[in-house]
Amino acid sequence: MSGRSGPRRIWLAPSAFHPSRGGVEELTLQLAHEYRRRGHDVTVIVHRHPRHLPTEDTVEGVPVRRIDLDLPGGDPRRLLRYPLALRRQVGALDDVGPRPDIVHVQCAANQVLPLTLWAARRRVPMVLTTQGEVTMDAGRIYQKSAQMRAVLRLGSRRAAALTACSRRAGDDAATVASRFEHAEVVPNGVDPTQWQVTPLPSAPVFAAWGRHVPQKGFDLLIRAFATVREQEPDAVLRIGGDGPEREHLRALAGDGVEFLGPLDRSGVRSLLEGCRVAVVPSRLEPFGIVAVEAMAAGRGVVWSTNGGLADATGDAGWGVDPTDTAALSEAMVRAHRDPLAPSDARAHAESLGWDRIGGRYLDLYETALGSRSAGASS
């Protein structure tokens, strides 16, 4: 797209963005950097939350426009006022600046309805990507809100293209909006240059990190690790992160389990340098960027088969149902005794570099723009 058609004007519309921190925020920022590197004009459009944030901002050189993109919820008074509020939201999009060539919605939330209506009115193709929000949202909003389900169905019908971060994420979205059955899988990316491959230590050291919440399955990992110690008495399990399950996990832990607390990027690098195997034991994971980061550092991964980690790892490593703690412990021992070659792990991570992921999306945009042109001329 960047070579054949020249620079494009792209709106990226995630469910949340900086100063909020998380997977979709980082994905959006990295795509914006990659597109700008290729000469495209990028603006991030996002719901203004909290309300004290400025409507116009710049994050790491990327222009950001924050707009109040609320849904009415169940409040009868807000429902009555919502048509006027929606009209204002769509009007605010007109005020952002020059019309984009493409709108890309990442992780469907409040932003879907106004952007769908605006894109249809302005005849701008829209790409809609699910990041597992249908089943992974902590508040289970899609299970509770008929509004959210209706909006996702509308957005999917009007979108020029649908994508999913993993096949599982697409299948989950299809339970609400059937068009996602045919969504193209475009995995999330990683910057391999941020990770260095170091020699594998010989000791049986396992590493895991993330939010200490039930979904991440650290309790399952701790139980499985007790069995690992029966076969590898010197084994060590290092767990990074924090969260509401912290005290429960500490109470559950036995010998050899070390808690490192919250880790920044440098802390995760140190954790991976000192481990032989990384473990991602999530009860459900739509993609699992932590697995790709571990592979970028040359580490093999024992990963949960409950979600999209097969797409994240390229099926390399050891996939296992983490709720079967006997099978999980067996996979951990195998991974220690017959590790994945660091060069193979790194090669897979490099296949998910942002240059390649950004290129796939740009090709998808070009196809959507070509379809619009063909439709307009027919």
Write up this protein.
By secondary structure, the protein is an alpha/beta fold. It has 2 domains: about 210 residues, Rossmann fold, CATH 3.40.50.2000; about 160 residues, Glycogen Phosphorylase B (Rossmann fold, 3-Layer(aba) Sandwich), CATH 3.40.50. Strand 7, helix 7 and strand 8 form a beta-alpha-beta unit. The two termini are about 25 Å apart. The relative contact order is 0.12. The model has no long low-confidence stretch (mean pLDDT about 95).
Key terms:
378 residues; Rossmann fold; 14 strands; single chain; 15 helices; globular; alpha/beta
How are helices and strands ordered from N to C?
Answer: EHEEEHEHEHHHEHEEHEHEHEHEHEHHH
Ranges with pLDDT <50 over ≥5 residues?
Answer: none
Strand composition percent = 15-25%
Main β sheet profile: 8 strands, mixed
Distance between the termini: 23 Å
E-strand count: 14
CATH superfamily of the largest domain: Glycogen Phosphorylase B
Tell me, rounded to a whole number, the average pLDDT.
94
What is the CATH C-level name of the largest domain? Alpha Beta
What structural class results from the helix and strand content? alpha/beta
Side by side, the strands of the main sheet go 3-4-2-1-5-6-7-8
What general form does the structure show?
Answer: globular
Query: What is the helix fraction of residues, given as a range?
Result: 40-55%
Rg from alpha-carbon coordinates:
22 Å
- If classified by CATH, what would the architecture of the largest domain be? 3-Layer(aba) Sandwich
Q: What is the overall number of helices? A: 15
The total domain count is: 2
The CATH topology label of the largest domain is Rossmann fold
